[in-house]
Amino acid sequence: MKAPFAPLMVAGLAAALTATPAAASSTQSTSLQSAAAAQVGDVAPDSPLVWVPAASAPVGIVRYAQAQCIGQNVFYVISGVAAGGSITTANQRYNATTNTWTPLAPIPSGSEGPAGVCYQGKIYVAGGGSANFFIYDITANTWAAGPAMPFATAMAHMGANNGKVYVAGGDADFNPSTGVLNTVAVYDIATNAWVANGANMPTATSAGGYAQIGTFLYVVGGWGTTAPTTNVNQTQRYDMATNTWSAGPTFTTARSDFALAASGVALYAIGGDNNGGGFFDLSTTVERLAVSTWPAGTWTATDSLPSARSAHRGGFCTNAFLPASGEVWSTAGIAAPFPTFTGTNQYLQAEACPSVAVATAVPAALEVDPAPANRVIEPNEAAVVVAPSWRNNSTVAIASLTGTANTFTGPAGATYTINDATASYGALAPSAVVSCLSTGDCYRVTVAAATRPVTHWDATFTETVAPLGTSKAWTIHIGGSFTDVPTTNPFYRFIETILHKNVTGGCTTTAFCPSAATTREQMAVFVLVAKQGAGYVPPACTGTRLFADVPASSSFCPYIEELSRRGVVSGCSATNYCPAAPTTREQMAVFVLRTLDPTLNPPACGTPVFGDVPASSPFCKWIEELVRRNVVTGCGGGNYCPTAAVTREQMSVFLTVTFGLVLYGV
């Protein structure tokens, strides 16, 4: 059994301090925590400023956890080993736009060689000589301890995709000859748990350079089981979307403990420990690999560092100093003369940085007082459930979506109360639609009033979902609108829907007259408004009248003649429309379907569905089309009652279902 991680690797650094870097043995520890380093400070450039200096880190630091949220011009340097060989818990953010460093909340427990990655507003830090796992909320500037990793590791490699964080490889004991790993641990953000491991790395490695472009985690070089005599010369790529590894061009210089920066099209391997010799053979080498031809390609030399660096694992990319191109960074690390702990922060012109597919969501639906309740909120009904749904309309998974409700208002004369102002939706995969009912954590509201302020009564509240910051003003119709339509009426919700959609306002300000027949002239208005939306007004009647019994002075004339122009109706005779006649159930089938789609021609009837609608009836195919669309089921006893008048309550069903009207929604 390997010994546990020692808090101070005295022997390793002592050997490094008393011998030349090339003299280190294969059994030497790679740790830099112990005796004080010989000096701390920046090393003056010893070559032309192809690499451009920027504001230095506040202190010299090595083997820190690096993190950069893709698409942002800021990066984070967290924990690591500070000047003097002591572990630091510092959390520093560099803003390339302002060229400034800002201290942030320190990590709860510092370490040497932790790995880090940013994903959807949080930074995940893993290992560093332990199984520790910490989560930093960037907005709140707070840390939380996550579940311990399945194994201890240091100088591992991290990526994140589709709601999961991946920790690949590393070293279990700071001694590559015995502790190097090829394991890939997988953390599921939604469940806050480590799940089954990913596919093993083809080549075990620790302290390799790592960077992410899209769904790909690149791991380059590093220390393997034969280090430091021979370092790893592999360029490995892990597709986090498919859980597969592939090998790319040979990394001939086989460096370790270096910064790997990624632009949108290439990798930059910057400095590090040279192949052979010991663990601290500092390098000035910088190489570039274009990734567009993967797995083909060649690592090619580019502008060397001004002075040698190692243990500066943060490979960053910004578009701040050179916005037209972009720049990659070498930040802090060990400098010459060995072992100087430096805070030097410098950049090299590259290409535009990796872009991020931004997670977005849009409101999809709204349920109020959901089943088994009647799905309508009434005045003075206490703490009614309000359940929005949201659709992930991006290609990026949303690990956890939550909502907050505020500003619940409506017409004066009532009290509007949010009883529960938070909701949660859980994870949203790309294209998924999720309701808060899936988690059981939805909003609750109450609307109280002694008297109804208006017949058509709507209230609104605003929901804001995190972490996206998207807001939606939801409209909530308040039921109980008509005194002659009790909540027990099976047509109740349909009647409330056509009122809410402004298809009709009732037969008086307080009554709907549900059992009254619907006339042909009324139906002309109802179907057109249901189709076109509230406020629709067809052209006025001018010139010669289409129907002798529909004068231009009739308020229904424009609607009746519009239906005629659309080929929906042709009248009740050669010259008349019979506007005051009741609409029959068979006529209603044609009214709604032809208004919905003037080109519709349903298939002819075969064996009749209803006993009183023979296949020879010209209305049969229209009636049976309504059945196929689940609009009607008949009047009972296997019949349709085709010549019966359509009552106003029945009309509400015909319109609501045919035209897809919803009481609550977007």
Count the E strands: 37
Strand % is 25-35%
What would you call the structural class?
mainly beta
Q: What overall form do the CA principal axes indicate?
A: elongated
The helix tally amounts to 8
Rg, nearest Å: 35 Å
Biggest sheet architecture? 5 strands, antiparallel
Could you tell me how far the N terminus lies from the C terminus, measured between alpha carbons in angstroms? 61 Å
Topology summary:
Elements (H helix, E strand, L loop, with lengths): L9 H9 L33 E3 L6 E2 L2 E3 L6 E5 L2 E2 L3 E2 L3 E5 L4 E5 L10 E5 L2 E5 L6 E5 L4 E4 L11 E5 L2 E8 L4 H4 E9 L4 E3 L13 E5 L2 E5 L14 E5 L4 E4 L11 E4 L3 E5 L15 E5 L9 E2 L7 E2 L4 E4 L8 E9 L4 E10 L11 E8 L15 E9 L5 E12 L5 E6 L1 E7 L4 E3 L7 E6 L9 E9 L3 E8 L14 H9 L19 H13 L24 H9 L19 H12 L23 H9 L19 H11 L8
Can you describe this structure?
The chain is mostly beta strands and 666 residues long. Helices cover 11% and strands 30% of the residues. It contains 8 helices and 37 strands. Strands 1, 25, 26, 27 and 28 form a 5-stranded antiparallel β-sheet that branches. Strands 29, 30, 32, 34 and 35 form a 5-stranded antiparallel β-sheet that branches. A 4-stranded antiparallel β-sheet has the order 3-4-7-8, with no helix packed on it. α3 (492-500) packs across α8, α6 packs across α7 and α6 (585-596) runs parallel beside α8 (648-658).
